[in-house]
Write a structure and sequence with these properties.
By secondary structure, the chain is α/β, with parallel strands linked by helices. It is built from four helices and nine strands. The chain has a five-stranded mixed sheet with strand order 7-6-5-8-9. A two-stranded antiparallel sheet has the order 1-2. Helix 1 links the parallel strand 5 and strand 6. The longest helix is centred in the middle third of the chain and has 14 residues. It is globular. It catalyses: a hydroperoxide + [thioredoxin]-dithiol = an alcohol + [thioredoxin]-disulfide + H2O.
């Protein structure tokens, strides 16, 4: 279990992020077109998992925009933006914003949050995902894992990009 804050108030997650050097758990998430994306389907590419509570909040939206900009410069890397938002909401946001360099994955019918230990277990965001970034290499090994201590803050984009 990890403790993070939201506007200074402490809340807990159900576990801890995978550690650097460990094998990332496979997952199945629902994309904007309702097809599934899995870690196995992305094998051979580096994967940046940009994980957040909801695309309809300012900080979450900013992280999607910033990773969209960064992703354009990496041909061997996929950025997958993950939340519990429905695929329709994620598609609406990306369409309205002209976001086309990232994939989106909804965990609404997935064990992703449990498998990665980042589902909020209490507080107003209970059931949603804690803001985190996990970078996985082409063989499925975790290269970087950050759980943002204050949920309202942005992740450390440069630290995630540096391991690529």
């Amino acid at each position: 279990m990890a403790t993070v804050t939201l506007k200074g108030n402490p809340f807990e997650t159900i576990g801890s992020l995978p550690s650097v050097g460990s094998k990332a758990a496979d997952f199945s998430l629902v994309q904007a077109d309702l097809s599934e994306v899995t870690l196995a389907s992305l094998a051979g590419k580096k994967v940046v998992l940009n994980i957040f509570p909801s695309i309809d909040t300012p900080t979450c939206a900013t992280s999607v925009r910033k990773f969209n900009e960064q992703a354009a410069s990496f041909s061997d890397t996929v950025v997958l933006c993950v939340s519990m938002d429905l695929p329709f909401a994620m598609a609406r946001f990306c369409g309205a914003e002209g976001i086309d360099n990232v994939l989106v994955g909804s965990g609404f019918r997935s064990s992703f949050g449990q498998d990665y230990g980042l589902t909020f277990s209490n507080g107003p965001l209970a059931g949603l995902y804690s803001r985190s970034v996990v970078v996985v290499d082409a063989d499925g090994t975790v290269l970087h894992a950050e759980q943002v201590a204050e949920t309202a803050d942005e992740p450390d984009y440069q630290a995630a990009i540096a391991v690529l």
